[in-house]
Write a structure and sequence with these properties.
Layout: E1 3-11, E2 14-23, E3 28-33, H1 38-51, E4 55-65, E5 71-73, H2 75-92, H3 99-103, E6 109-111, H4 112-115, H5 117-168, H6 171-186, H7 194-207, H8 211-229, H9 235-255, H10 259-279
Parallel strand pairs: 3-4
Antiparallel strand pairs: 1-2, 2-4, 5-6
């Protein structure tokens, strides 16, 4: 589904801007741009994967701190480093550590970039949430339009199903009439065995019976309408139902004993193909 969202947020001295563009795609395809730290990009990607299911999504990230080069001394880290070095020096009978040695220990002098990593990530994720909210608003509007179109097409399919069921009710009588006429011609109007004829008619009528397929087709159409009315993603489940609807129509077509049923199946397949194309755009 298509959409655009932009979010801006701050955290401490960090400020972030996130833009999201999404276009139709059968699966979720993420592209992150902006050259952020790997940890931040992974956090952004993880949040997108839990929020979106489909779409070719391009995310532009920009974040900075007001004083990125600022440094400070971590007093607690300095004291711990001094105590540890002093204990080692004493055990070795050496003079205690000087200030330069303490400052050289990891974690004592903290650069602005190191200190601001959490702020940058917090600001970026907050901006991402804002962009996702705007994106979701646009996608919901598109989803409502898609749902209306799909419901109308499902209604058309249901009317075709009803028409097929009406035609199918006449199949046994038609089969009986056709067989009787053909057998009379072949036997030159010789008297037929009614029991034998009825048996053959029943066998052929059973082969042409599409009752089970029509029942399943009705169930699939009801489920599709229910999915469109419910909240939450439905695209992948609708994909599956479209395949099952197509399977039932193919079976009905292969069993068809009437030109009217064959014509109705052709119309239904044309409508189903339009539904299939639209379903690819559903979240």
């Amino acid at each position: 589904m298509t959409g655009y969202g932009r979010g801006v947020a701050t955290s401490g001295e960090a400020r972030a801007t996130v833009e999201i563009r999404s276009v139709n795609h059968r699966f979720l395809d993420l592209k992150l741009r902006g050259g952020m730290a790997p940890a931040i990009e992974e956090a952004v990607a993880a949040r997108l994967r839990t929020t979106l299911e489909r779409g070719a999504v391009t995310v532009s990230l920009h974040a900075e701190r007001a004083s990125a080069t600022e440094t400070r001394i971590d007093g607690a880290a300095a004291a711990a480093a001094h105590d540890a070095l002093a204990a080692i020096a004493k055990s070795l009978g050496l003079p205690g550590p000087d200030l330069a040695m303490v400052l050289a220990q990891p974690g004592v002098v903290v650069s602005g970039d190191e200190r601001g990593g959490d702020e940058l990530q917090a600001a970026t994720l907050a901006a991402l949430d804002g962009a996702l909210a705007e994106l979701d608003s646009m996608r919901r509007a598109e989803g409502a339009a898609l749902a209306a179109d799909l419901l109308a097409r499902l209604g058309d399919l249901d009317r075709v199903r009803v028409a097929i069921a009406s035609h199918a009710a006449a199949v046994p009588q038609l089969v009986s009439k056709r067989i009787t006429e053909r057998v009379k011609v072949l036997l030159d109007n010789t008297q037929l065995d009614p029991g034998r004829l009825a048996q053959e008619v029943a066998l052929l009528a059973d082969r042409a019976d599409v009752t089970e397929e029509l029942v399943r087709l009705a169930s699939h159409l009801d489920q599709a309408r229910a999915m469109l009315a419910a909240q939450g993603p439905a695209g992948r489940r609708l994909d599956f139902l479209v395949q099952e609807i197509g399977r039932e129509l193919n079976t009905i077509g292969s069993k068809s004993a009437l030109a009217e049923i064959t014509s109705a199946v052709v119309d239904a397949k044309a409508q189903l193909e339009k539904i299939r194309e639209q379903v690819q755009n559903v979240e």
